[in-house]
Design a protein that fits this description.
Layout lengths: L10 E4 L8 H12 L7 H18 L4 H16 L5 H8 L11 H9 L3 E6 L3 H11 L5 E4 H4 L7 H10 L6 E5 L2 H10 L3 E5 L20 E3 L2 H7 L3
Length: 231
């Protein structure tokens, strides 16, 4: 059987920010709107974010609001634009304003007619609650960093999703943009994966650290996920 035979899967799990939500536009827009006079390029902002966020998350578990506030503070040196405590808090609270990709809602609606849907996201519950209505569907399972006390690429999200879904890993397909946070760890755990390789506004891997991973399939957007699974 081909690994992406649609009949093989019962549950599709998604990363949210970067895959369903245009987090690069959100990050860049939040830096510019909360910091007067920031002249850094989009690519510089995303590179600074990628480096700082990963370092903050790797130190110890903090809420994602705290992670983002500290990340914005640590971006100041490389961007040449400091942020006040109020600006850091505004940046951290901007997640619910980050735009959903234009193809997300229709693709999720198509997929929900055939599969159970889940979210595995490096976010706080209250921040995701602001994004959820913009996605247009109900999810069977939502696993966040605040629920498991860790951040991907740590395996906690995937372990908890398996427990809640009650499904063996071979019946779950994980769909994500980040090789580092999602495709590499999910593949190592034995999941089939689809890499949504959206173009970046930055350099290299954009807002995520670089990683080497071998997804089961690669597509350019969410519309292509629905086509791949013939929904």
């Amino acid at each position: 059987m081909h690994p992406l035979d649609p009949s093989r899967f019962e549950l599709l799990t998604f990363d949210c920010y970067g895959t369903l939500v245009d987090w690069e536009s959100g990050i860049v827009g939040a830096v510019r709107s909360t910091t007067a006079g920031c002249e850094a390029s989009d690519a510089d902002i995303l590179e600074a974010f990628s480096h700082a966020e990963h370092l903050v998350q790797s130190e110890r578990y903090r809420s994602y609001r705290e992670v983002l506030a500290l990340t914005r503070g640590r971006m100041a040196t490389s961007l040449g634009c400091a942020a006040t405590s109020g600006e850091r808090a505004a940046f951290a609270g901007s997640v619910g304003d980050w735009p959903v990709f234009a193809d997300t809602r229709e693709a999720l609606e198509r997929l929900s007619g055939r599969y159970r849907l889940g979210i595995v996201s490096n976010v706080d519950d209250d921040l995701f609650a602001r994004t959820l209505p913009c996605l247009g569907v109900d999810f069977d399972c939502v696993v966040t960093a605040s629920q498991v006390g860790s951040y991907k690429p740590a395996p906690g999200h995937f372990v908890e999703m398996e427990r809640r879904s009650g499904l063996p890993r071979e019946r779950t397909l994980h769909v994500a943009q980040s090789l580092f946070h999602d495709i590499a760890p999910a593949s190592e755990l034995g999941y089939a994966t689809v890499h949504v390789d959206r173009p970046t506004r930055g350099r290299g891997s954009g807002a995520t650290p670089a990683a080497i991973a071998r997804p089961t399939a690669t597509v350019p957007d969410m519309a292509s996920v629905a086509e791949l699974l013939a929904c």
